[in-house]
C-alpha cells in the first residue's frame, strides 16, 4: 500500500481532518436551482466532514481529499461506515477518535491532515501535522 493510500485509509480513523477554514459550502438560494454535483459538500445541516491530507512540509505537496456525509451515507470517503461510526462515538470531535496502537517506522515523510464540516448542528474543524502516514 502506498503512503498516500495508507494516509487516506488512516484518515478514516483520524476521521476528518480539514481545519483550514476553506469551507466551500454550497448555499441554497432560490436563484440557484441547479443541482449540486455528486461530490459537492452537503448543506449546513446533517453530519458531514470534508477531509484533506497533504504530503510534504509545505503547501505545494500532493493532496488527497474525500467527503464523508454520515447523514445521507454518501460521498467519496473510502470507509464511510467505519468513519461515521467512529465520529458518532466521539460526538464529532475528530481529535478524540481512537487510533489503533501500532509500531511505526521512524521515517520522516510529513503529512498535514485537515477536516472541516458540520456535526449535530455545529461546525467542526481539525488540523494536525504528522511525521508520516503510519502515525496519522
Explain this structure.
With 136 residues, this protein is α+β, with helices and mostly antiparallel strands. It is built from two helices and five strands, in the order αβββαββ. The protein has one domain: 2-Layer Sandwich (Subtilisin Inhibitor), CATH 3.30.350.10. The protein has a five-stranded antiparallel sheet, with helices on one face. The two termini are 15 Å apart.
Give a nutshell description of this structure:
The protein has 136 residues and is of the alpha+beta class. Helix content is 15%, strand content 26%.
CATH topology group: Subtilisin Inhibitor
Quickly give the structural class.
Answer: alpha+beta
β-strand amount: 25-35%
Rg? 15 Å
Domain count: the total is 1
Mean pLDDT: 72
Compressed to H and E, one letter per element, the order equals HEEEHEE
What is the count of DSSP helices, taking H or I runs of 4+ residues? 2
Share of helix, binned: 10-25%
CATH class value = Alpha Beta
Judging from the principal axes of the Cα atoms, what is the shape?
globular
What is the distance, rounded to the nearest whole angstrom, between the alpha carbons of the first and last residues?
A: 15 Å
Outline the low-pLDDT stretches.
1-38
Main-sheet strand order equals 3-2-1-4-5
Main sheet characteristics: 5 strands, antiparallel
CATH superfamily: Subtilisin inhibitor-like
Q: What's the count of strands? A: 5
Amino acid at each position: 500500500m502506498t503512503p498516500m493510500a495508507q494516509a487516506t485509509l488512516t484518515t478514516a480513523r483520524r476521521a476528518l481532518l480539514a481545519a483550514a477554514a476553506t469551507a466551500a459550502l454550497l448555499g441554497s438560494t432560490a436563484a440557484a436551482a441547479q443541482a449540486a454535483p455528486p461530490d459537492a459538500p452537503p448543506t449546513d445541516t446533517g453530519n458531514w466532514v470534508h477531509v484533506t491530507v497533504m504530503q510534504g512540509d509545505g503547501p505545494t505537496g500532493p493532496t488527497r481529499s474525500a467527503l464523508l456525509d454520515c447523514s445521507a451515507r454518501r460521498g467519496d470517503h473510502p470507509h464511510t461506515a467505519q468513519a461515521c461510526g467512529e465520529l458518532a462515538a466521539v460526538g464529532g470531535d475528530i481529535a478524540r477518535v481512537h487510533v489503533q496502537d501500532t509500531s511505526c517506522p521512524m521515517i520522516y515523510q510529513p503529512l498535514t491532515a485537515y477536516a472541516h464540516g458540520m456535526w449535530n448542528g455545529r461546525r467542526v474543524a481539525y488540523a494536525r501535522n504528522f511525521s508520516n502516514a503510519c502515525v496519522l
